[in-house]
Design goal:
By secondary structure, the protein is an alpha/beta fold. The protein has 6 helices and 15 strands.
Length: 207
């Protein structure tokens, strides 16, 4: 497992705007889309290239094109949906799956109320969720994907707590994590500190 923190100045600037409690729902969504696109550059950095002969207006050349990496974007509902538009802008050919779940209060086990993924298990899956707090939802989603036969999985979050990173690292050491920021801690309600509040509420205006 590798932890990648994307510290590009534009990402950090836009994240600061998102953290501000005065930022509107419309602006929050817009910034999240932009950051997801910037982060997409890094999460796809190691995609292999092949070379094909093309002809420019002036001459023929051997031109690089992406080879062999078919992508699925798998948002964890509902907040993960906010990162999909940025990634599909960058990777228009990507398929989009959906992972919806909640935790049973009595058994503490994950209950998947919606799970829909493409049939091709050879694709790279990018799991999206703006917040990696305790890590429970991310770990459960990754476990379900692995049980379904997916082998190449990456996790992309906006902000994370050390506890969330540790949980994913321990349970899924083969999954790389991509973040815009690693924050300080969790509060008593398992909100990330300093964080940015409830990402789902801020994306969909339900706060």
């Amino acid at each position: 497992m590798a932890l990648h923190i994307i510290d590009h100045p534009l990402v950090q600037h836009k994240l600061s705007l998102m953290r501000c409690k005065e930022t509107s729902t419309m602006k929050f969504r817009e910034l999240l889309k932009e950051i997801a696109m910037f982060m997409g550059y890094e999460i796809t950095r190691d995609f292999p290239l092949t070379y094909e002969e093309i002809e420019t207006p002036l001459m023929k050349m051997s031109a690089p094109k992406i080879s062999g990496k078919k992508v699925v974007i798998a948002p964890i509902l509902r907040a993960g949906l906010g990162m999909v538009d940025g990634l599909t802008t960058l990777i228009p050919s990507a398929r989009v799956g959906h992972i919806g779940m909640y935790r049973d209060e009595e058994t503490c086990l994950p209950v998947f109320y919606y799970y829909k993924m493409p049939a091709n298990k050879d694709r790279l899956v990018i799991v999206t969720d703006p917040m990696l707090a305790t890590g429970g939802s991310a770990c459960d989603a990754i476990s379900r994907l692995k049980a379904d036969g997916y082998k190449s999985i990456r996790l992309m979050c906006l902000v994370a707590s050390p506890q969330g990173v540790q949980a994913v690292t321990e349970q899924h050491p083969d999954v790389d994590i991509y973040l815009a920021a690693l924050d300080d801690d969790l509060n008593e309600k398992n909100y990330i500190l300093p964080g940015l509040g409830d990402a789902g509420d801020r994306i969909f205006g339900t706060r």
